[in-house]
């Protein structure tokens, strides 16, 4: 397993575009200064030791060294020892609707983005429980198998978007079946599926899938996201809305009846999300009542530091950057490091 012990340092990498922009402006200013004395190529011949290629080479080397130094400060580590530990928890798979209707903005900033925010907050409340992610529209796919790696769960969660499932529709039944078959086969702890959807345009039989899950000891909790009055579905840059074959704007509405029946069938609970409350508190209180049993898990208990190798390369690059002078010298005039020949036009 690879990780950074101090990932906050990685934000320093955001300064690189600014460095590139400032350096480019500096080079441009120098070229304009040379042009002020006359013909650009003629003036360059009068200063044969001058080389913009050297400037760019030194800057590139220094930039790479900067990146490596930041990576070393972030503390790269590689897992070196797996230890078996005992945990007491449950397994939960969140099935998130990613159909186009989830782009509607009756829940701000949009149904899909608000759902992702809520899931992230829900993950922060767990400690020993295992979590998995399933995404669905007209079909369903596993986004993340059940794991106790919450950092990975958030990473996979951030990558979810409506474009990842091309087949449109709301296959809630398919998502429930996939989630029910994705729990750890040897685990006897409590198993829960949380379905987050507007429930509209379901193209299969979600109640039959919910009954099958309940027969296997799996509870299903549903969160309805959207409003019964509905909202249009933005497309493109949100300046237009999805229209039907007759040119009328499509209005997507929350189907609470279906989601409520799914929860009742699978011994769960239905919660309706709103702009003020997503329904996390009642959901979390319900999840605390789910039976949690002890299970074995393997985690990395020791990590080897890797920063020293990256830092050594960075130092070597900085030394090379210092050795490469801004101008040619008599000592280095015979070194054809940049492919310039005698009397060749310097660029």
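^ structure tokens above, recovered residues below v
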């Amino acid at each position: 397993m690879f990780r950074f012990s101090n990932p906050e340092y990685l934000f320093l990498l955001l300064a690189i575009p600014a460095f590139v922009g400032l350096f480019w402006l500096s080079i441009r200013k120098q070229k304009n200064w040379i042009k002020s004395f006359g013909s650009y190529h003629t003036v360059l011949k009068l200063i044969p030791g001058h080389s913009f290629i050297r400037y760019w080479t030194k800057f590139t080397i220094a930039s790479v060294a900067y990146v490596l130094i930041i990576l070393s400060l972030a503390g790269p580590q590689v897992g070196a020892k797996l230890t078996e530990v005992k945990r007491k928890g449950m397994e939960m798979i969140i099935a998130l609707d990613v159909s186009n209707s989830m782009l509607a903005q009756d829940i701000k900033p949009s149904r899909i983005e608000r759902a992702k925010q809520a899931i992230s907050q829900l993950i922060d409340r767990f400690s020993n429980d295992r979590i998995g992610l399933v995404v669905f529209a007209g079909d369903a796919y596993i986004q993340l198998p059940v794991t106790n790696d919450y950092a990975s769960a958030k990473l996979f969660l951030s990558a979810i978007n409506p474009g990842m499932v091309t087949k449109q529709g709301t296959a809630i039944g398919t998502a429930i079946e996939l989630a029910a078959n994705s729990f750890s086969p040897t685990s006897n702890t409590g198993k829960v599926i949380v379905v987050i959807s507007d429930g509209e345009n379901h193209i299969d039989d979600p109640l039959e899938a919910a009954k099958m899950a309940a027969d296997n000891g799996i509870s299903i909790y549903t969160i309805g996201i959207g409003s019964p009055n509905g909202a249009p579905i933005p497309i493109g840059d949100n300046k237009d809305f999805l229209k039907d074959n007759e040119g009328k704007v499509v209005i997507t509405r929350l189907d609470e009846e279906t989601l409520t029946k799914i929860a009742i069938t699978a011994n769960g609970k239905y919660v309706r999300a709103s702009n003020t409350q997503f329904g996390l508190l009642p959901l979390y209180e319900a999840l605390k009542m789910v039976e949690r049993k002890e299970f074995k898990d393997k985690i990395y208990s020791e990590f080897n530091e890797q920063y020293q190798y990256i830092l050594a390369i960075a130092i070597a690059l900085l030394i090379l950057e210092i050795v490469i002078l801004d101008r040619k010298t008599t000592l280095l005039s015979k070194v054809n490091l940049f492919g310039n020949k005698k009397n060749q036009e310097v660029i």
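Residues 52-73 form the longest helix (22 residues).
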